[in-house]
Design brief:
Elements lengths: L4 H5 L22 E7 L9 E8 L4 H11 L7 E3 L8 E9 L5 H11 L3 E8 L8 E11 L5 H15 L1 E2 L12 H10 L7 H25 L11 E4 L5 E3 L3 H9 L3 E7 L9 H13 L4 H6 L5 E4 L1 E2 L5 E5 L2 E9 L4 H9 L7
Parallel strand pairs: 1-4
Antiparallel strand pairs: 1-6, 2-4, 2-5, 3-4, 6-14, 7-12, 8-9, 8-10, 10-11, 13-14
Helix pairs in contact: 5-6, 6-8
Length: about 350
Amino acid sequence: MGVDPTQFLSPPFITPDLPGIGGEIKVRPVHFVVEEIPLYDPAGDGEHVYVRLVREGWTTRALERRLAELFDLRDVDVGSAGLKDKHARATQTFSLLLRDLDEETVAQRIRDVLPVEVLWVRRHRNKLRVGHLLGNRFRVVVVDPAPQALARTLPVVQFLRAHGLPNYYGGQRFGVRGDNARKGREALFGRGPRKRWLRRFLLSAYQSALFNVWLAERVERGWFERLLTGDVAKKTDTGGLFDVVDAAVELPRFQRGEITYTGPIYGSRMRWAGGEPGQLERRVMEDAGVTSEMLHRARLDGSRRVARLLLDDLSVEPHAEGLLFTFTLPKGAYATTLLREFMKLDVSGE
């Protein structure tokens, strides 16, 4: 059995009974402002140069390639912590393997050639790699929302701050009409492209689709706000994983936001949940027709992903062109997943 693409492209809202505001996002880049929150500060010495800049109109990969050309580097000598959308106004950091150039020369060369704002340049001892960030701060304007939109947002804000948000992957993760996820499924079944990087990209999209299917089922079962015996939980301060042996014992920590449960990024070495949560994880995989042998053959190790997000700083206020949403999300979470709860539309762009 395949996976119904609507299950991962349009997963259930957590606020289905609260009316939406409609509107549009990213009419202009300044309407979608995202700022990386670094995992660490540069040490001040080392063979890599970290460049903190603000850019519009570039994909992260395109800017990485342009920086490599500018300094005559290999593509692998340029690093970044995460992808940012082309149509956003993004503040992010790149690392360049430059042993000999001083920081001011690096900054000036970038300013002279590229249409970006350089905030600072500092040295560090290692390359910046994907995941080397804590999260992202967002300032998003929803343009032309429905009448009385602000009033409509208030109960949604209250609900999400009290109960949390499902950490679905955004629709842009899966490509147009879910094509990347479907091609990833074909690759898992041995019918995908030969290029290794493309296969990995498509396989990852399909893993994300299966996670969305699992989380949608958990929401539908009424398990979203529940910690269950058998869950694989994560400590929100240290990131450590542990098995929930007795949900009643761990419930106070769950209610205080000190721990949360995680969901499956399916792979041959993934840590499985036990009890009822584990049964659900296995059923989703079986319903998709996926086997452990397939995952092993595709060299997908698997991992766990936080499934419930807490939104302590979510706020909404009037804006000249609509409404301004400000919030912070941990790395890997999608702003569009949050915004769709307010707009009651499936939106894209990160």
